[in-house]
TrEMBL record:
InterPro entries in UniProt: AMP-bd_C_sf, AMP-binding_CS, AMP-dep_synth/lig_dom, ANL_N_sf, ATP-dep_AMP-bd_enzyme
Keyword Iron attributed: no
Protein name: AMP-binding protein
Taxonomy, superkingdom: Bacteria
AMP-dependent synthetase/ligase domain sequence ranges: 134-302
Alphabetic keyword roster: Ligase
Keyword Ligase among UniProt keywords: yes
One Pfam family linked to the record: AMP-binding
PANTHER family in the cross-refs: LONG-CHAIN-FATTY-ACID--COA LIGASE
Length: 459
């Protein structure tokens, strides 16, 4: 199998792969303020920005506007450079990534009050850039590293993962086939997730670059903004979001234009939430599974059952401490911390939790994911998480703790409700009520911030 992978990589490395899939210059790539941006105009913007970029190996792409990010992403790649994608745009996160890549610079569309070192503000991307009359699509070497994505830090220190253009082209094929089977070949995407996140890259950058898909330029956050953005693109519409954003949309009571599908990732989607969303908005809730290291490699319709469907050419091999992922597009097999059981000849799997989330106390087993699910199922709990604290007691057991957002409940009532669904050895002590959990832009919970709310310093 290793020989097959190596042959595949060598064949791909010799190819120059198109930056954009467009059979004609007027193919819509993006929507800005309700107006379409053609492939011709988009490529003119890419060339305009590429000509202004300094020589370097890497650049931090800080663009908030999704169209500006798309242009900068491609301009950086056309220059033979790699996009650095910090886990957030917070100053410290950007500073740490730039320190790890000496000589890099940063780009963005905004005039920042406190810009990072070597910051370049993009020119205004006019609606009708001057084109030279030639519609030439650039090619990128398959082996060129075009992005270095950093993990969220929800389980520890963020780490960078290199992505070549060949990697992205190959992984995008699985996402395209999955979505086309549900909504057809052409659709429009509105995304609530930032383009810097790997989920955002896959679903709001690669899809419009490599398929008959157009993306809305904004990143709507509040429910009314999501409704407005969806109204600015024609049907069929796909909403790329997270469980946190989806719950906020439902609870707001906002009306949305007709949807073809809702796509979720970054955190587990509960069956209850998926059913509520499908009933409220009349479209299927699809969930994708993957990681920064592997990109997406499986999907499911949440209300259709627990089992996930693997993408073509992806194979899973359960390990004692996780699951090995094999695919021709991966340089080498990648082991994830997720525990799975295989079904239907290995083409489907059930997710049992993460290795680090599995608990064993007094001969009994549970998972942090299941405990969190039971906490969230308590009426009145709006948000919550169960996790383990650093350090251990004299028996070597890490204490289980919980944070909950429940304005009309107290700690005692929540513990008593949990006691009816959870073995007493797994009851979280302490459980602390907070006004909000420290979720990042994609809804994940950085561990160091959870510990800080508990009054603990990371080990």
């Amino acid at each position: 199998m290793a020989i097959v992978y190596e042959i595949y990589r060598q064949e791909q490395a010799a190819l120059g792969l198109p930056l954009l899939a467009a059979e004609h210059p007027q193919r819509t790539v993006a929507w800005r303020q309700g107006q379409p941006v053609s492939a011709e105009a988009f490529l003119a913007h890419v060339q305009e920005v590429a000509a202004l970029l300094p020589p370097a190996a890497t650049a931090v792409n800080l663009c908030e506007d999704r169209y500006a990010f798309l242009v900068a992403f491609c301009a950086i790649a056309v220059r033979g450079q790699a996009n650095l994608l910090p886990s957030s745009r917070a100053f410290q996160a950007v500073e740490e990534v730039m320190a790890a890549h000496p000589g890099c610079y940063a780009v963005g569309e905004l005039a920042l009050d406190t810009p990072p070192p070597h910051y370049r503000q993009l020119p205004a991307l006019s609606a009708e850039p001057m084109a030279d009359g030639l519609f030439a699509i650039p090619t990128i070497p398959a082996e060129q590293v075009v992005a270095i994505g950093y993990t969220s830090g929800s389980t520890g220190v963020p780490k960078g993962t290199l992505k070549t253009w060949g990697d992205f082209v190959a992984s995008n094929g699985g996402n395209q086939r999955m979505l086309q089977a549900e909504v057809g070949t052409g659709f429009n995407v509105v995304a609530t997730v930032p383009p810097q996140h790997m989920y955002g890259i896959e679903m709001s950058v690669l899809l419009p670059l490599l398929g008959d898909v157009a993306v809305h330029a904004g990143r709507p956050f509040f429910p009314a903004d999501v409704a407005t953005a969806l109204a600015e693109v024609p049907a069929p519409r796909v909403l790329v979001t997270t469980p946190v954003h989806l719950r906020a949309l439902i609870e707001s009571g906002v009306s949305l234009p007709p949807l073809a599908a809702m796509l979720s990732a970054t955190a587990p989607m509960s069956l209850e939430l998926a059913r509520m969303a499908e009933t409220r908005f009349g479209a299927p809730v699809l969930e994708i599974f993957g990681s920064t290291e592997t990109c997406a490699f499986a999907s499911r319709r949440v209300t259709a059952g627990e089992l996930w469907n693997l993408y073509d050419d992806v194979h899973l091999h359960p390990q004692p401490d996780g699951t090995q992922v094999r695919a021709p597009r991966l340089v080498q097999p990648m082991t994830l911390a997720d525990i799975v059981t295989l079904h239907d000849g290995g083409r489907r799997f059930r997710l049992c939790g993460r290795h680090a989330d599995m608990l064993e106390i007094a001969g009994k087993r549970a998972s942090l994911g299941d405990l969190t699910h039971r906490l969230l199922a308590i009426p009145g709990v709006q948000d919550g998480v169960v996790f383990q604290l650093d350090g251990s007691d004299t028996l070597g057991i890490h204490r289980i703790a919980a944070l909950a957002v429940a304005p009309d409940l107290d700690e005692h009532s929540i513990i008593e409700a949990l006691r009816r669904a959870v073995d007493p050895v797994f009851l979280p002590r302490p459980l602390i009520l907070v006004h909000a959990l420290p979720r990042n832009e994609t809804g994940k919970l950085p561990r160091h911030q959870l510990l800080a709310l508990m009054g603990h310093e990371p080990a």
